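Dear colleague,

As promised, here are the two records you asked about, laid out in our usual form so they can be pasted straight into your sheet.

NAME FIELD: protein one
SEQUENCE, THEN STRUCTURE:
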Amino acid sequence: MVKLLENTFRLTNIALVNELAIMCERLGINVWEVIDAASTKPFGFMPFYPGPGMGGHCIPIDPFYLSWKAKEYNTEAKFIELAGEVNRKMTENITHRIARALNDYKKSVKDSKIMIVGVAYKKDIDDMRESPALRIMELLEYKGANVCYHDPYVKTVKLLKNTELTKDNIEKQDAIVITTDHTNVDYDLMAKHAKLIVDTRNRMATVKNPKATIIRA
């Protein structure tokens, strides 16, 4: 029960900040700046950060075991189920955000070349269990995009091989989408040679003088 509480705590707080991120994007507010400012409060606030969805073997699964168990005892876990729904829909929201960003360049998702950067569910590991990047790739492919990926820890995804992050490969893409912010990725190279970067992790905030158009998502 302790483990379930811990993972449910994280699930619900991540859902809250994901929902706020969507709201802030519509309002033209930088949610990352809001979180940083709120974090200056010395008590009563713990920062959680938005992302493209939930991944891993614990947070996306454990709370729903608790919800299932609750039904056996004639009670409900509505808060948990709602949080799960918000987090699941983030992959769709990010896909729509990519489509809108391409549309601003008079480019449709269909036949666009899109590179997903980071397919592991969190940074600096090779674990892809429940990774939201995989679902985003599926959604983009369903819409007709030509999708490739780069991840220094993952050699293959289904039938796709890891694409080397080079100047030529970057320049070929209509958009690059950062879904997992691995430490050992050359973000400066991306910022210099990409046309469009959709950043779901706020990783490009520290890159100075980027030539690419950067969209926070």
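NAME FIELD: protein two
SEQUENCE, THEN STRUCTURE:
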Amino acid sequence: MNTPAEQLKGQVLAGGWVVGDLIPRTGTQTGGHFSCSYLVTNADGRTAFLKAMDYTRALTAPDPAMALNQLTSAFLFERQILQECSDRRMSRIVRAIDGGKTVVAGAAVEYLIFEHARGDIRAYLDASKQFDLIWTITCLHNICVGMQQLNLAQMAHQDLKPSNVLDFEQEGQKLADLGRAYLHKQGVSC
């Protein structure tokens, strides 16, 4: 049986975003066990990536109250840290462009909408027929700039890996998935 977060296809969300097909999980994906992913489009034809929180999966954990608390805390923390990155105009951090909640099958589903990348850097590397020194140096530079932007704001990513470096056609690479970041001013991380 599908959870409410797995039933968003066709929903029209606040901001005019229309939810497309559920993006199936692949064997190479890491993280995201309590969320579902979709592509969404708005009236202008802009495509974005939607991350929907799946609270119902936490209810099957051995300690549902603890799992719900951790999931809710992580979602609120990620939303807060993304807002801080946006307020500071961090150019090498993936932006959350919208967010909110909708109701499906009587249950609230909270979501974040991110700018859409063509994939993480693994997809580019897998498709490359030969080593591209310029792309590699540019990618490393963009990763370092993203880390510097976070560090200047007294934040630490704490989960940097190829799947969390997204590749954009025009803008190059940006860091994603700040759900486990550390924010010094509050002395907290998730």
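A couple of things worth noting about protein two: The mean pLDDT is 90. The first helix runs from residue 55 to 58.

Best,
R.
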